[in-house]
Amino acid sequence: MAVLEQERQTVRAQAKWVHSSARKARLVTDLIRGRSVPEARTILAFSNRAVAKDVEKVLRSAVANAESRPDLHWSGDDLVVAAVYTDEGPTLKRWRARARGRVARIRKRTCHITIELTQSPAALAVAATAAGAPKRRAPRKKAEPVEASAEEKKFEDMTLEEAKAAEADEVSTEGTDQ
User: Fold this and answer.
1) What is the CA radius of gyration of the chain?
2) Where are the alpha helices (DSSP H) in 104-147?
3) What are residue 72's phi and psi, to 5 degrees?
4) DSSP states along 60-107
5) Rounded to whole angstroms, how far apart are CA atoms 73 and 98?
6) Local confidence band at 137 (pLDDT 50, 70, 90 cut-offs)
7) Max CA distance (Å), the chain
8) In CA terms, which of 58, 72, 94, 162 is 20 to 30 Å from 2?
9) How far is CA 60 from the centre of its chain?
10) What is the pLDDT of residues 76-86, one digit of tens each?
11) What is the C-alpha separation between 152 and 166, in angstroms, rounded?
């Protein structure tokens, strides 16, 4: 029997040659990975890092890509950040004059930021039921309670003290049978 695995559709956006080091950008992108789009926008809006503005631009672009595709019909608020990663870009090498005729290298680092969005599981469930997908099987019913035996019925209507006294009488009479 073959198992069919449904491939999740994703929409992505990428910003190349962002003027920030990849290490600094990863600190921000790690905060939004796996979050919903409104939550990610809130995190980026209140981040003190300068690269958060660039990440927010890429997020806006990815949401616009998802909303503009006619085959998907996705809403921006129903999306989740499936993957976000920051790769190193080319480093610009510049020189600065130092003492005694020497130079020091200045590395102006760049990075490439990529964000992939997918629909949230809740939105997928709504879309699946709307499309007429097979419904999940109903949970099993619990087993009916079994009727109590004659001995158990004898103790049901008694108070705790009466039950202890009756039990003590049974134990004392059992010892005399031998």
Assistant:
1) 34
2) 121-130
3) -100, -45
4) HHHHHHHHH-TTT---GGGEEEEEEEEEE-PPEEEEEE-GGG-EEEEE
5) 58
6) low
7) 115
8) 72
9) 20
10) 899 999 999 99
11) 12
Distances (CA, A) of 120 to 58, 71, 104, 106: 19, 17, 50, 44
Alpha-carbon span 153 to 155, nearest angstrom: 5
Instruction: Write the burial class of residue 110 (CB in 10 Å: 0-12 exposed, 13-18 middle, 19+ buried).
Output: middle
Structural contact between residues 19 and 83, judged by C-beta atoms closer than 8 angstroms: no
* Bridge partners, residue 108, by sequence: 92
Structural domains in the chain, sorted by start: 11-130 (3.90.470.10)
Q: Tell me the C-alpha to C-alpha distance, in Å, between residue 16 and each of 47, 53, 99.
A: 21, 14, 36
pTM for the complete prediction?
Answer: 0.68
For 46, the enclosing helix (H) or strand (E) is: none
Report d(CA 39, CA 80) in Å as an integer: 9
